[in-house]
């Protein structure tokens, strides 16, 4: 487990490098849910997602020699963008390995930030093979997207900010993929407010953490195109940190369909005046679909990222609710 003390140390370490994001009440969702619902606006983070927190916490703990050699990571987009930004900020350089499923707008932004990009295969597991090769051949330092205590602690600072903004929170809705955000937020929230529920929300197809929790051990899943592209990818069969933490700390995992994710994106745009990507919309999707068990008390949904391709966003805003080739 990553401790509350470790998360508090991460907050101090990264405080000059990240943005403390607001927690705002949603009148529309509160009326729908019959209780106060607030939104944690992490899509307003400097790189458009929560990932900057963990990436910065990790980069700041490397030795100068490790920084000089450079860092490498597999990514579905947002971790790569965050790591590229964080590496550049301290004079290092990142190499980001991604599959062909990563949207081009995310790849382009990573290149703009000065990173070296490798596009490999059709899954995050295949991209990880390229990461392992670069570590062996070039001596780069790995900064994994989720399964590392430095990453989890950095993401856990989101939970600290939620508790401080809403001390009586009853449930936190966390987008769930590899589990770095969910594990960190759950560790922070439950250390301060043990009775609060932390609920992971993810897409129906290719939900690796949900499949692993159900199986009782990490498993591989097939990856599909999704509005929630940032939630794609496996958790790693040798997962050491996020799988046991999510299995222990999450109170539930809720699955939402592509149609429901699209509805969440539209709601955020029309009612909350927020442009968010599919992964950031899954908490709203769960609320709109009525899939959450009754919660007695305030709810906070984390809008984890806003790095959606704007042409796709326009299509969704105009009614697109399925994604496939050509969308």
From TrEMBL:
Keywords: Lyase, Pyridoxal phosphate. Its cofactor is pyridoxal 5'-phosphate. Residues 14-305 form the Tryptophan synthase beta chain-like PALP domain. The keyword Zinc does not apply. It comes from the Bacteria. Coiled coil: none annotated. Pfam families: PALP. InterPro entries: Ectoine_EutB (IPR014333), Ser/Thr_Dehydratase (IPR050147), Ser/Thr_deHydtase_PyrdxlP-BS (IPR000634), TrpB-like_PALP (IPR001926), TrpB-like_PALP_sf (IPR036052). NCBIfam families: ectoine_eutB, PRK07476.1. This is Hydroxyectoine utilization dehydratase EutB. It comes from Rhizobium herbae. The gene is eutB.
């Amino acid at each position: 487990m990553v401790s509350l003390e470790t998360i508090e140390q991460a907050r101090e370490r990264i405080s000059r490098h990240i943005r403390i994001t607001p927690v705002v009440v949603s009148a529309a969702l509160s009326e729908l849910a019959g209780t106060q619902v607030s939104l944690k606006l992490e899509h307003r983070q400097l790189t458009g997602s929560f990932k900057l927190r963990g990436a910065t916490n990790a980069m700041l703990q490397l030795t100068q020699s490790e920084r000089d050699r450079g860092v490498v990571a597999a990514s579905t987009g947002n971790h790569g963008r965050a790591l590229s930004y964080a590496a550049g900020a301290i004079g290092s350089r990142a190499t980001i390995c991604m599959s062909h499923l990563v949207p081009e707008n995310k790849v382009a932004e990573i290149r703009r930030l000065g990173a070296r990009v490798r596009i490999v295969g059709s899954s995050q597991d295949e991209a990880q093979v390229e990461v392992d090769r670069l570590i062996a051949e070039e001596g780069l330092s790995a900064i994994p997207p989720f399964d590392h205590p430095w990453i989890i602690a950095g993401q856990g600072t989101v939970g600290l900010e939620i508790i401080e903004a809403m001390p009586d929170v009853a449930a936190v809705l966390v987008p769930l993929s590899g589990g770095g955000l969910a594990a960190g937020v759950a560790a922070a929230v439950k250390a301060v407010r043990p009775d609060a529920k932390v609920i992971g929300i993810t897409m129906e197809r290719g939900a690796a953490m949900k499949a692993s929790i159900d199986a009782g051990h990490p498993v591989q899943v097939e990856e599909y195109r999704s509005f929630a592209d940032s939630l794609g990818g496996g958790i790693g069969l040798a997962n050491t940190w996020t799988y046991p933490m999510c299995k222990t700390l999450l109170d539930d995992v809720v699955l939402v369909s592509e149609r429901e994710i699209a509805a969440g994106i539209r709601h955020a745009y029309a009612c909350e005046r927020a442009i968010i990507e599919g992964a950031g919309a899954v908490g709203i999707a769960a609320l709109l679909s009525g899939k959450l068990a009754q919660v007695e008390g305030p709810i906070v949904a984390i809008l984890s990222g806003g790095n959606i391709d704007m042409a796709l966003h326009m299509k969704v805003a105009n009614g697109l609710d399925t994604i496939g080739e050509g969308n």
